[in-house]
Amino acid sequence: MPLAEVPVAVPNPFRLDLTGKQVERLFQISPDLVYIIDVNLRKMVFISNRVQDILGYTYDDIQQMGGSLISVLIHPDLNRFVAETYQRFAALKEGETAKFTFEIRHKNGSIRSIRSRATVLTYDEQGKNHLILNVAEDVTDALAHEMDLQKKQYQINETEVIFKCGSWEWQKNEKGIRWSEGLFRLMGLAPEAYPDKCVTRAFFESFIVPEDLARVQNYSKTVLAEKNDTFQIEHRIIDAAGNLKYLTLRARCQYGEDGRLERVIGVAADRTEIETYQKELERRLVALKKSNQDLEQFAYVASHDLQEPLRKIIAFGERLDKKYKEQLGTEGQFFVERMTNAAYRMNGLIEDLLTYSRVSRQTESLTFISLEEVVKNVIEDLEVKIQDKNATISIDKLPTIEARPVQMHQLFLNLIENALKFTQPSVAPVVTVKARKANIQEIKGIMQINPHETYYRVSVSDNGIGFEPEYAERIFTIFQRLHGRSEYEGTGLGLAICRKIVESNHGYIEAHGKVGGGAEFIFYLPLRQHETR
To answer: Whole-angstrom Cα distance, residue 94 to residue 105?
Structure first.
C-alpha cells in the first residue's frame, strides 16, 4: 500500500526533507511492522511488507479485507477497543508515544500478540493529528516466555511458603547477598521493603542467636579455608517479630581457577516445627517411661485384691468394738482401735495410689477452666478446716487455661491442705495463691516445658514450718515423708500427685522452703494443651 507524497520533517538537529517514497523505502527495510493510520478517514493508508512475514497476509489479502486488519483483531469488546484506540491517536501530543498491546489472528489461524508504539506523523490544516505512525513487533514468544517465568516464579514462591524456606545467592563483585521473597518472610520481614532484594552478611548475622553466632562464623571460615563445595549448618535465629526459629542452611560453593570463591547459592529452611516435635517427643518418652515405672509400682502394691480384705478388717473391727466392747476390756479395746486406725490409714493410702494412677491415664477431657473458680471451690471444701485453724486464704487474680477440671481441683486441694497441715504452733496460717504470665527467660530456663508456648506461673505459699532446701526435690517423691506420722497425718502421696498432675498437663512444678520460714510451691501451666487428643 503506497504512501502519499507528503514531506516529512524528521525531529532531529540534522534535518532532512524526505519525500513519501523515500520514507516508504525506509519503512520497508525496518525489521518491525510499520503502518500509518489516517485519523480523519479512520483507516490504514500504509503498511510495510513485513505484514506478510509477521501475520501471513499479502497486500491482496488486506485489500480484500477492506484495507484494514480490524476484521482479524481479537478483543472481547472490539468496537469499544477500536473507538478508544482512535481517541488515543487523536489526543497524542507532539513528541509523545502511545504504547498498547493487542491480539490478532494470523493467516494460519494462530493467535499472535502485537506490541505497537504510535506517534504523530503529520497534522491537518486545522493543526489536528492527521497521520499516525505505528511501529509494531510480534511479542507472542516473548510474552509466552514471560508468562512461563512468572508461573515458575509463582511456583517457587508457593514452594517457599509451603516448606517455610527461602533461597539466597552471592556472586563475586556484587554488593551484597540476594535473597528470595521466601527468605525475607522467614526472617519476619516484608519483601517489598527491600526492592533490590540485596542484604549484607552483617544484616543476616544480626538475626542469629548470639550463642550460635561464633559457631556459624567459624564454620564459614573453615568451609572457605578448605575450599569445600558444600555448606551445611543448623542454628537458631530471632526473627524480626521476636520469634525463636531453628534454621538449616545448605549451600553450594563455586571457586575460580585461582581458588577464590566466585559464587554461593543456598537454601535456608525453617525446621522449628521439627525441632519442637522432637523435643516434645523426647519429653513424652521420658514422661511415659516414668509413668510406666510408677504404674508398675502401683500395680504391685495396690489392687482390688488388696482392698477387699482391708474392707473386711475395718468392718469386723467395728463390729467387734460394738458387740464385744465390754468383754474386751481396756487392753482389748486398745488393740481393736489400733487395728481399725491402721486399716483406715491403709485404705487412705490405696485411695491416694488410685488417684496417682488415674492422673497418668488422663481419662478426663480437656476444657477451658478458671483457676480462680477452682480455688474458690477448694476453699469451700476446706471451710471447716480453715475455720478450725483460723486460717487466712488470699487469692490473687488467676487465669483461665485449658486443663482437666478434676485434676486442677485435686492440685489446689492438695497444696492448700498441705499448707493448713504443716503450721507453726500458735501461729494462724496464711496461705497466698498468686499467678502471672511467665516471661520468656523463665520459660527458656526450664527444659521440661515448650519454649514456644504461653505459660502461667502459679504459686501457693504459706507461713508454716517450711523445710530444708535440700529436700525440695525429695518431697515430690512417692511415699516420702519429712515428718513422722505421729506429728502430721497423711500418706506421703499428696505432693507426688501434685507433680503428676502438673506434668500430665505439660507443666512443671518446684518447691522452695526454709525451716520456720514457710514453703512456696511454684508451678507453670500452659495456656493451651497442644497434644493429640
So the answer is: 32
Per-residue pLDDT for the chain (533 aa), expressed as one digit of tens each? 444 444 444 454 555 565 666 666 767 767 789 899 999 988 888 888 888 888 999 989 988 888 888 899 999 999 999 999 999 999 999 889 999 899 999 999 999 999 999 999 889 889 899 999 999 999 888 888 888 777 776 776 777 767 678 888 998 888 789 888 888 988 999 988 898 888 998 999 999 999 999 999 999 999 988 999 998 999 999 999 999 999 998 999 999 888 889 999 888 888 888 888 888 888 888 888 787 677 656 655 655 567 677 778 888 888 887 887 778 778 888 887 888 777 776 776 666 666 666 665 666 688 899 999 999 989 988 888 899 899 999 999 999 999 988 889 889 988 998 898 888 888 899 999 999 999 998 988 888 888 889 999 999 999 988 888 888 888 887 655 554 444 555 566 788 888 988 988 899 999 998 888 889 999 999 999 875 33
Extended strands (E) in 86-150? 98-105, 111-123, 129-138
Nearest to residue 37, comparing CAs of 153, 135, 115? 135
CB atoms under 10 Å from CB of 371, counted, come to 22
DSSP 3: P
pTM (two decimals) = 0.42
